[in-house]
Structures are given as structure tokens and as C-alpha cells.
Known about the structure:
Peroxidase, domain 1, 2 domains, 8 helices, ion transport, proton-transporting ATP synthase activity, rotational mechanism, cell membrane, transport
Amino acid sequence: MSTNAIAKRYAKALVQLGSEAGSVDSFNAELTRFSALLTDSRDLSAVFANPAYGIESKREVMKELVAKLQLSPMISNLLMLLLERGRISVLPQISESYGAFADELSGVIRPTLSSGLPLEASQIEEIRSALAKSTGKKVELKVEVDPSLIGGVVTKIGGKVFDGSVRTQLARIQDILQKG
């Protein structure tokens, strides 16, 4: 089974448990925090990946981290389970998948809006409102400036791209002119 499939299984199960406990958001925050710690600390990742350290040593390190970060029993149990099964390295993907499932459950989308020039707050809000109206979901928009677009905007929602950039329009015109 692929790492991505494994991550999705753990994430989906945890979202279901979080939903039942009313803790979806807090679980997400805890997973994100621990995942960032694991990703940012090479030494910590090395300890968990190194077979020279026994499982008991790894458990002790995990218990200390869980206590220091004040993680919930559910997340603590998940981390211990991943440690026992040698899958702690999958945690960043579990965290990412969990976030996606949690957003789906709560009706949130997180599109990326790229523009050639910085947009005014009113323009961003207008786009956010239009996306919310067309999708029927809460929109948490990530705004980026990409000078290569020249002008216009590109919106990415999941796997879909809505490209209204000047760069793309110029490329289309060039293509039409070349084809005759």
C-alpha cells in the first residue's frame, strides 16, 4: 500500500473520531504542530528513524514530547501507534490529509489566488464572495503576487485552475497567429 493511501486511512479515521468527539479543529492544530516539529527538527526525525534506538527509547522520547506539547489522549495514542508500527515518518502526510478531510467536513475550501499586481482588500473580498457564492462553501483564500502573470488573476481550487491572466491570453493570441 502506498504511503499516501496509508496517510489517508489514518487521517480519515481520525477525522471521524474527531467529529464524534467534537474535536476536529483541535486535532488538526495538534497534528499540524507535531508534524511541523518533526519536519523542522532533523535530530528528532533521526531518532525516530534510527533503528539503533530501541522502541522503548523512542517511546520515552514520544511521551516527553506529548507531555511538553500537551497533546490530547487521542493524538497521543495515534502518535504511539504510528511509532509502534514504524510509520511516524508518514505523519506529515497524515496531517495534510487530515486537514483536507476536516475542510471537506466543515465545508471549507482553500483556493489560491495569484495576481500580476498586488490586489486591494476590496478586490480580494469581492473575489472571495464570488467564490463562496458559486461553491456554496466558506472560502479561506490564499493570495499571492506573481509578476510573471503580467496582469489578471489565476485561481486554483483543488485540482482546477481558472486562468484569467494576461500571460495566458497573450499565449492564446500567439498560438492563433502561429496557426494562421
